[in-house]
Design goal:
It contains no helices and 25 strands. The strands form 6 sheets. It has a 5-stranded mixed sheet, with no helix packed on it. A 4-stranded antiparallel sheet has the order 2-25-24-23, with no helix packed on it. Strands 3-4-5-6 form a 4-stranded antiparallel sheet, with no helix packed on it. It has a single domain, classed as Neuraminidase (6 Propeller). Strand 13 and strand 14 form a beta hairpin.
């Protein structure tokens, strides 16, 4: 999630434009802010509708979207665990505390944790040990570890000024994904995606370089090793292939205005589809206008890297 009304600077390198086939599969009347999404094994797409303090569910089999759960505060990050439970981060923007909720299969909301000094909880991911939820705090330089077995048990997993916002109006640590034994973290304020190796005891190792000159909000890994990046105020989706070559695969004409997050489909026929959530320019309008928020389906020609594919004991 971005919290700024500024346009991106020339630091962002999205490569050339090669649009992927696309289709808008759901929309929310403006002004609306769809912030994040997660795709269940059965193909259902869950979305955090930040502007309306709720979680919606899109069913690719029927094409229908429905309210799944109402929340007491605006939601931001979203992740599924191995049991199918949804974990949600949120809170009032720039105001402590931050909250973690656990949602059951029918949308039952369980208050899980309250982080008293967290004012900008954002993206989250399940740790490979399956017992911790790693949560970005965009207003500081921290990644929290929330115990997924004990409510209100949490600690700081990583703290480093290199994932903080510094003097930038953009967020610090924004999105987080697990791949190759590391937590990959988008740092919007620094136009970087960095990685923190996950050590044998589950703790974070020293930060290492990843990608620079990319205005990343959220991102997803393809099976090939390619990285798909939503750029939010840059109004696009960028593919960085395994060689490092960059291509913008969606822009305003493909529905990517205010692209906030992305995740691969899992339903039959969806395996090579990348779902992209948008805010329609809620934060940074495109050509002076706010559009409807959207869920866009891009055909990218490969499947996604399994989010829970690196489970390990420890």
């Amino acid at each position: 999630m971005m919290d700024t009304d500024l346009a991106p600077t020339p630091k962002h390198d999205g490569g050339g434009l090669e649009p992927a086939p696309f289709r808008v599969v759901a929309a929310w009347p403006a002004p609306a802010f769809v912030e994040n999404l997660a795709v269940a094994p059965d193909g259902a797409v869950y979305l955090t509708v930040h502007s309306h303090s709720r979680i919606d569910r899109y069913d690719p089999a029927t094409g229908q979207t429905a309210v799944f759960a109402e929340l007491p505060a605006p939601p931001m990050g979203l992740a599924l665990d191995a049991s199918g439970a949804l974990w949600v981060t949120g809170g009032t923007m720039r105001t402590a505390p931050g909250f973690i909720w656990r949602l059951g299969p029918n949308g039952e909301v369980e208050h899980w944790a309250e982080l008293p000094d967290a004012s900008f909880l954002n993206g989250c991911a399940v740790h490979p040990n399956g017992r911790e939820l790693l949560v970005c705090e965009s207003g500081s330089g921290r990644i929290f570890s929330v115990d997924m077995r004990r409510p209100d048990a949490w600690s700081i997993w990583l703290e480093d000024e290199r994932i903080g916002p510094g003097d930038s109006p953009y967020p610090g640590a924004n999105g987080v994904k697990i791949r190759g034994g590391a937590a990959w973290i988008s740092v919007s304020a620094r136009y970087e995606i960095v990685r923190a190796p996950i050590l044998s005891d589950g703790s974070a190792g020293p930060l290492k370089a990843g990608f620079t000159e990319i205005l990343a909000d959220d991102f997803a890994f393809g099976a090939s090793g390619a990285l798909y990046v939503t750029t939010h105020p840059a109004q696009s989706v960028v593919r960085i292939d395994a060689s490092g070559a960059r291509t913008t695969i969606a822009g305003p004409d493909q529905g990517a205005v205010g692209s906030t997050a992305c995740a691969f489909g899992t339903a039959p026929g969806d395996e090579q589809a990348l779902y992209v959530s948008t805010d329609g320019g809620f934060i940074v309008p495109h050509e002076g206008a706010i559009q409807d928020a959207k869920l866009v389906r891009l055909e990218v020609g490969e499947a996604g890297y399994p989010l829970l594919g690196e489970r390990r004991a420890g």
